[in-house]
Amino acid sequence: MDTNSLFTNVHEHVARRTDIRSIIFSVILILVGGLAFYFSIIEENESSSLSMLIMTLGAACLLVGVFRLFWKSHSWFYTPTDSRISVKSEFYEAADFRSLKSVLDGCCFSGEKTVKSGNTGGIRMDYMYSKDRKFAAVQLFQFSSYIYQPVTEVYYYRDMTADEFICCAEKRMF
Q1: Would you say residue 44 has pLDDT above 70?
Q2: Stretch 10-35: mean pLDDT, rounded?
Q3: Which residues of 121-145 are buried (b: 16+ CB within 10 A; e: fewer)?
Q4: CB 92 within 8 A of CB 118
């Protein structure tokens, strides 16, 4: 059984690329923040509350823009449909492992829902899915020796099966 992590064993149709929209938004934030900061400094009445508010907002825009530019400018994409990928995790009780694994093995997401996620648990399910709901990748991890270690291979779902999985994941019920 291949128990590599979900992100070290990425599907052939998933690629990490530069996100142009995110870069453009980051540059706009930096420009707006820089202009606000500049205008708050050159204002003649430096002690005004409005000037301080503009300076604070400008500094915040600058910081958020720089953060987004350097750390959020790349995203995962499902290449056949050029759809952005989201990544999430859910937690389940250790007693639910067999039920959850059998649902993932059998790809039967439309049946009776018996497994509900919680805020913590001995089992963690990491998954990524495309925004157009045409692709999903899932892997289960078990808490052992103070870390979550992979206990299943990575499951890949496409088209209708991916959409059914995402519906279950959104409801947090399998």
Answers
A1: no
A2: 88
A3: bbbbbbbbbbeebbbbbbbbbbeee
A4: yes
